[in-house]
Amino acid sequence: MVVVGLGNPGPRYAFTRHNVGFLFLDFLKSKDWKTEKYFAWSRIKLAGNDVALVKPLTYMNLSGLAMPHVLKFFNASPDDIIVVYDDVSLKLGRIRIRKKGSDGGHNGMKSIIQALGTQEIKRIRVGIGDKPEGMDLVDFVLGEFSDEEWIILNKVFEVMKEALEVILIEGTEKAMSIYNSLEVRV
């Protein structure tokens, strides 16, 4: 399995809502990242399986540029990938696991679907909440989480780790049935 967390590279974006994919991978493994031309990567053991963690080093909207290189490097197919990314249409504390689907208006996922030529890509969408009324969407997703939001997000990351283990052991459908209805609260 290759878990691809979406985000923007560099310290300016490190802790923004849009970088929730990168943040989750850092939650799983914060050290020992290696860098290739288009992506950073590491490996972990999860539920007894070797799992590759990948952060595309292109900017979010160009995430797909890294994917052919990722597939070749890990000798993987689109079926081996799970993409993790932010979703403003989901409340903070919620996740949605899907086996396939459209980009849902997310430009990073759109780029990946275009690059791989398929919508048959597993994904975990991470709720980052509704933007405040009157706030620009870009400003919201490129804003940082509050201290209270971090408490929820860390609990969400624990749940996401469990969900990945279920995907590995029992399959995506089982994980969907367990985790898509959960809401993490403080």
Let me know the average pLDDT.
95
CATH architecture: 3-Layer(aba) Sandwich
Structural class: alpha/beta
Major sheet strand order = 2-3-4-1-5-7-6
| Domain tally | 1
Provide the gyration radius in Å.
Answer: 15 Å
- So what's the overall shape? globular
Percent of sequence in beta strands: 15-25%
> What is the tally of helical segments?
6
Low-confidence stretches: none
Biggest β-sheet description: 7 strands, mixed
The CATH superfamily appears as Peptidyl-tRNA hydrolase
CATH topology descriptor = Rossmann fold
Note the run of SSEs as H and E: EHEEEHEEHEHHH
GO molecular function: peptidyl-tRNA hydrolase activity; tRNA binding
InterPro entries: Pept_tRNA_hydro (IPR001328), Pept_tRNA_hydro_CS (IPR018171), Pept_tRNA_hydro_sf (IPR036416)
Pfam family, one: Pept_tRNA_hydro
Enzyme class: hydrolase
What descriptors fit this protein?
21% strand, Pept_tRNA_hydro_CS, alpha/beta, Pept_tRNA_hydro_sf, 6 helices, 186 residues, cytoplasm, 7-stranded mixed beta sheet, Rossmann fold, EC 3.1.1.29, single chain
